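Troubleshooting log. The previous run stalled partway through. Resubmitting the same two chains, unchanged.
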Amino acid sequence: MVRIQLYTDDKCFGPGIAQLLELVAERKSLRAAAQSMGMAYSKAWTVVRRCEESLGYPLLLSSTGGRHGGGAELTDEARAMLAGYRAYCRALNEAAERLFPDYFPGSGNPDGQ
Amino acid sequence: MVRIQLYTDDKCFGPGIAQLLELVAERKSLRAAAQSMGMAYSKAWTVVRRCEESLGYPLLLSSTGGRHGGGAELTDEARAMLAGYRAYCRALNEAAERLFPDYFPGSGNPDGQ
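Second attempt completed without errors. Output:
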């Protein structure tokens, strides 16, 4: 298995923000999503804002209640980014498994967990 | 650019140990290699030992002078692993750039730094 981290000038989108967004979609709350990753809410908030800045579009819609009150959901752009990232990771992991024996002959394949 | 991290059951070989081994090859000393990465010698030693355990072969040969005295060099297996890893990363980065537009249409390519 390989870990896929996209870069533009800076680190831009990777496994951490992907997991966080998936949990927001599931739990409808950034606070609950952060909690279930063992991440402080303030850290999760910063991670999302930085990613939004580097992508140039919003990832989360806050529903009624303001910053601390209401829930959150993903924007259409966030959903599209997440789906693209997951599909891209699958394709690259397939390429990684296919190429592995060419570069490490005699080794077992790395675990495809 | 993608970051390639190999896994077996555990994290096993990635950019950090690769850079450390390259610096050992250059400086003939684990202490000097660690220093030039801003890494504590004890940490570098642990990183090398863990990687040796997970790969099942030694990465470093210590030359005369014992643990603290003499220099270090790479074993043949370490050299082969490092060369395989670098070539594998190049191949996967090429695949990553080639596949990128299929999954993120309309985006610029990630930086190939």
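Takeaways: The first helix of chain A runs from residue 15 to 27. Strands of chain A lie at 6-7, 11-13, 60-62, 72-74.
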